[in-house]
Amino acid sequence: MARSSVDHCDQDPYEQPLILRGSTGGSPDFHCPANSRSVSCEARDTGRAMSESADIIRRVYAVMGAGDVERVADSVDTNAEWIPDRSVGEAPRRGRDSVLEFFRDRASMFGEFEAEVEQLFERDDHVLAFIRLAGSGAASGAPFEIRIAHLWTLRDDRIIRGEGYRDRGEALEALGLRE
Question: What is the pTM of this model?
Answer without folding.
Answer: 0.72
